[in-house]
Design a protein that fits this description.
Layout (H helix, E strand, L loop, with lengths): L10 E4 L2 E6 L8 E7 L3 E4 L6 H13 L9 E3 L5 H4 L2 H8 L2 E4 L4 H5 L2 H17 L9 H11 L8 E2 L5 E2 L2 E8 L8 E5 L4 E5 L25 H13 L5 E4 L8 H22 L7 H8 L8 H17 L4 E5 L2 E5 L1
Parallel strand pairs: 4-5, 5-6, 6-7, 11-12
Antiparallel strand pairs: 1-2, 2-3, 3-4, 8-9, 9-10, 10-11, 13-14
Length: about 325
């Protein structure tokens, strides 16, 4: 990857907010990391664990007049590796504390027992979804991706919905799950600014990624339902600009949210049409919905399909039958 284009100055968004564009090896492209000069120097997210990302972070901070060693606290919007992979390296150099939602902890710590549970959850989910046995290798690949682009770290302060961010008293925590169970956004009423992570992105629709339940004996979270609810919460808020985790600043959040919600319903209609000629598994529906993408991005595309199946199931618009451990959906 040629990263010269990322070796640029941090972009000053407000007197106390800077955006650093950090390269990632993922198809989503660069991730936006934010520096807030509050009572404590705060980084919101850190980027993935790669040499290119580290160089971009160091150079971006320097252009804002800050050294990595001076960072005092780190707020994670969520636990995905493109946002948290460099956490431990920043902590080791700076001694900064990490603030995040409780759900991020086992992913950030790379807790071995949790990761075993995580892999077993996806094995059972994919088998029930009808994924062919030769494609189940994707679970090991996904595990390796997590451990390659992040390393074990820790969270010091757990954040909850509507509390104030320590040492950034103007900023309020919003719990915005859906894209991940650990997802937080930050909101400042004074200038109606929201740091939205991957909750609201202008150029792409965030994937409501299926994840294991917090309570291992419980049902998996209905992530697309969560995501829609959190979007509707934000649509009701006075927000002039969303500083996204990827891409440009969003200044039309209500119109964007409405379009995303409408797209959900459009996709449920498509699913019903695909079921008109007979029952299908979630995997079969995924291959029909995403014929050019499902092989390369099975975890994302299958999550998208299952999320829309969840919506239809809640509304009693489709039925499900289990045969030999595989779920089949029909009208």
């Amino acid at each position: 990857m040629d990263t010269r284009e990322f070796r640029t100055r941090a972009t000053q968004i407000a007197p106390d907010i800077y955006c650093l564009e950090i390269p990632t090896p993922f198809s989503v492209g660069a991730v936006n990391v934010y520096l807030i000069k509050g009572d404590k120097l705060t980084l919101v997210d850190v980027g993935p664990k790669t040499d290119e990302a580290w160089q971009a972070l160091v150079e971006g901070l320097q252009s804002a007049g800050v050294r990595v060693e001076e960072i005092e606290q780190i707020v994670l919007t969520h636990h995905h590796v493109d946002h948290c992979g460099q956490l431990e390296k920043v902590r080791q150099l700076s001694g900064a504390q990490t603030l995040a939602h409780p759900q991020a902890a086992p992913y950030v710590e790379l807790d071995a027992d949790f990761m075993d549970f995580h892999d077993q959850f996806f094995l059972e989910l994919y088998q029930k979804s009808g994924v062919p046995s030769d494609m189940l290798v994707i679970i090991a690949k996904f595990h390796k991706l997590i451990t390659t682009f992040s390393e074990p770290s820790r969270i010091d302060v757990l954040l909850k919905h509507e509390q104030r961010v320590p040492h950034l008293e103007e900023w309020q925590v919003l719990y915005t799950p859906g894209h991940s169970q650990s997802h937080l956004s930050l909101y400042r009423e004074r200038d109606r600014t929201m740091i939205g992570g991957d909750h609201i992105i202008g150029h792409i629709s965030s994937n409501a990624f299926i994840e294991p339940p917090r309570d291992r004996s419980g049902a998996r979270p209905l992530t697309l339902v969560q995501y829609r609810t959190a979007l509707q919460m934000c649509a009701d808020m006075e927000i002039d600009r969303v500083l996204s985790g990827h891409g440009e600043i969003v200044t039309n959040h209500r119109e964007l949210i409405l379009a995303r919600l409408q797209k959900n319903w459009s996709r449920t209609d498509t699913l019903r049409q695909l079921l008109a000629d007979g029952e299908k598994t979630a995997y079969e529906l995924t291959t029909l919905l995403f014929p050019t993408l499902y092989e390369k991005e099975l975890p994302l595309t299958l999550s998208e399909t299952i999320g829309h199946i969840d919506l239809l199931t809640i509304l009693h618009q489709i039925e499900v039958t289990e045969k030999d451990g595989v779920l089949y959906y029909h009208l």
